[in-house]
């Protein structure tokens, strides 16, 4: 089950050819995207996702996204979805065709949630720390590196996940050159320390997570402290709990880090999942 829609609200067969071979999204990964969780026909954090699409597009100097058009495309996908309760909704915006008139390519696509993600939500994951090779000040100094943009150039992120799989792990926590922690290839790291939720600041060159923001909002309301501050990789093995959070995986517990079993955080997972779900 897949649904494909465009910014004018029309839909098309997701199996039919759509892109031209000179689409710069295809040729150079030159574009941006978002992935949104839709549950029972309701998109979660749609506003923050569209805000982030705007921010990513601005970083790549793409034309400003047409917000009303994206909302039409989102509605069209949701209204035509006949799959299960949960859907992953991808928004894709590329620079368009190299030999074209400069019109960006834009579409929204609804997809089922992969079984692997559901299994990881339920059972937790083993993660490895892997170097990402830059220090936290680089994002400001070198805006052309697009650190913190949700660009279509995710080949490095996917390569890191494959590397982790060869090491027997499910996912990755990227570390910076100064020994601090960045993010997962498709997720935000949240650490628990003394009933405080901690996540690294996005200005070090990572994506500001919509799921982390929703979780922190709910946790603060329930009396938790929350902090956005640098986290040393050396602190990870002794944390009360580590979670990778993102739109589709929601809150996923890390049970093993770099081959070492962590504290049992099942009770904290239940508590944080209930808090996160209370937002919707
Ligand atoms: C690199 C990266 N960091 C963090 C996230 C988490 O963002 P969100 O919670 O908005 O899905 C993602 C999402 O895919 C991501 O690709």
UniProtKB/TrEMBL annotation:
Name recorded for this polypeptide: 4-amino-4-deoxychorismate lyase
EC top class named in words: lyase
Molecular function per GO: 4-amino-4-deoxychorismate lyase activity
Signal peptide per UniProt: none
One Pfam match: Aminotran_4
GO process terms (BP): carboxylic acid biosynthetic process
Origin species: Kutzneria kofuensis
Record's keyword terms, sorted: Lyase
Domain of life: Bacteria
GO CC annotation terms, alphabetical: cytosol
Family: Belongs to the class-IV pyridoxal-phosphate-dependent aminotransferase family.
EC number(s) on file: 4.1.3.38
Annotated coiled-coil segments of the chain: none
């Amino acid at each position: 089950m897949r649904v494909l829609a465009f910014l004018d609200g029309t839909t098309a067969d997701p199996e039919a050819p759509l892109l031209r071979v000179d689409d710069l999204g295809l040729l150079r990964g030159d574009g941006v995207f978002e992935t949104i969780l839709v549950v029972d026909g309701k998109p979660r954090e749609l506003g923050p996702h569209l805000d982030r699409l705007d921010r990513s597009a601005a970083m790549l100097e793409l034309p400003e996204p047409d917000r009303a058009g994206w909302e039409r495309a989102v509605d069209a996908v949701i209204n035509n979805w006949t799959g299960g309760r949960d859907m992953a909704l991808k928004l894709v915006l590329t620079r368009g065709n190299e030999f074209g008139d400069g019109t960006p390519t834009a579409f929204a696509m609804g997809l089922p949630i992969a079984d692997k993600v559901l299994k990881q939500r339920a059972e937790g994951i083993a993660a490895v720390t892997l170097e990402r090779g830059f220090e936290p000040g680089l994002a400001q100094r070198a805006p052309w590196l697009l650190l913190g943009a949700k660009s279509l150039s995710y080949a490095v992120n996917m390569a890191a996940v494959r590397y982790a799989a060869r090491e027997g792990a499910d996912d990755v926590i990227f570390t910076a050159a100064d020994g601090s922690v960045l993010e997962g290839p498709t997720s935000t790291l949240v650490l628990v320390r003394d009933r405080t939720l901690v996540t690294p600041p996005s200005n070090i060159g990572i994506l500001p997570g919509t799921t982390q923001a929703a979780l922190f909002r709910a946790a603060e309301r329930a009396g938790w402290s929350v902090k956005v501050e640098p986290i040393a990789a050396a602190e990870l093995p002794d944390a009360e709990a580590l979670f990778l959070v993102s739109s589709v995986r929601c809150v996923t517990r890390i049970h093993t880090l770099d081959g070492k079993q962590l504290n049992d955080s099942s009770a904290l997972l239940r508590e944080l999942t209930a808090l996160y779900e209370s937002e919707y």
